[in-house]
Amino acid sequence: MSELTDLYQEVILDHNKKRRAEGFNPLCGDQIQLYVKLDDGLISDIGFQGSGCAISKASASLMTSALKGRTAAEAGELFERFHQLVTTDDAADPGELGKLAVFSGVREFPARVKCASLAWHTLRAALEGKGEKVTTE
């Protein structure tokens, strides 16, 4: 293969490892851009930038800390447990979620559930490779 062909293959393969998704909460204006780098199904790097309320930003920050080094499958499981925590009274023991347990009180304020879960829904879109913008509405 030529060097140019090698370069294009490397760029394409590298791009496939890096997932990006955008999330938006039209109710309050929270916005997030989430970046996930997967290496053989493992989240080797994850980060975000955006603007929003304290709950939205804290959720995104704690989510990225909790997921780095985990597999995409583990991230999906953690999404489900977190979503249960913020939406139902029947959630698993909040202590199992470590620092994420601080969001257990959010379920008492339905409008804030969307703030806390925005980063998580954006994560799901990134892992699924969806290009559209995620919205909490």
Alpha carbon gyration radius: 16 Å
- State the total count of DSSP E strands: 4
The coarse overall form would be globular
How many individual helices?
4
Can you walk through the features of this model?
With 137 residues, this protein is of the alpha+beta class. The protein has a single domain, classed as Sufe protein. Chain: A (Alpha-Beta Complex). It is built from four helices and four strands, in the order H-E-E-E-H-H-H-E. A four-stranded mixed sheet has the order 3-2-1-4. A hairpin with a 4-residue loop joins strand 1 and strand 2. The chain is globular. The N and C termini lie far apart (48 Å).
Any key phrases for this structure?
47% helix, 137 residues, Sufe protein. Chain: A, four-stranded mixed β-sheet, alpha+beta
